Amino acid sequence: MKCKYCGNEIIGKFEWMKVKVLGKNIEIMKEITHKGKSFEEIQKLIPEGCILPTYFELQELRNSDKIDELHLRDTWEFVENPDKIAKENGFVARFFANSGVADLYCDGVPRLSVAGLGVRFVRDINSKDKTKNVKNK
Q: Which helix (H) or strand (E) holds 104?
């Protein structure tokens, strides 16, 4: 499936969920997609108007009543790198969580691809961005 606004390929079917997190109203993909792709590949696939979620957003949602609906009980996904030094050195961040742990790793190489590692996108629903009402199912 291709984004009707930017033409980038969107892999898999997914649904968006509206949530309030860290004081912002956003839409977030319910599940991760693009598994097995490297961060370099994913950067070319980000639909217009979308960004990667932050570790802090996912951690707040993981500790909320949305944990199961967003499949955050057991996940491994790329996130926006919050560490300025690691980001400047070209490292990417990954959020990993399962029943016993939740971790942020900021040491990933952009070319790394692992079968279970994926991404989900978020978008600000308060912006006037033309993608805010797009439903990708």
A: strand 102-108
Contact yes or no for 25/125 (Cβ under 8 A): yes
Give the DSSP per-residue string, 58-96: HHHHHTSTTTTTTT-SSEEEEEB---HHHHHTT-EEEEE
Q: What is the C-alpha to C-alpha distance for residues 8 and 30, in angstroms, rounded to an integer?
A: 19
In sequence order, the β-bridge partners of residue 19 are 26
Mean pLDDT of 7-31: 82
Range list of H helices, the chain: 39-43, 55-62, 84-88
Rounded Cα–Cα distance for residues 72 and 90 (Å): 26
For residue range 83-111, list pLDDT tens digits in order: 899 889 888 999 999 988 889 988 878 88
φ, ψ at 40 (rounded to 5°): -60, -45
The Cα 90–Cα 44 span in angstroms is: 16
Contact 18, 126 (CB under 8 A): no
* Contact between 17 and 57 (Cβ < 8 Å): no
Residue with tokens 């109203």: 25
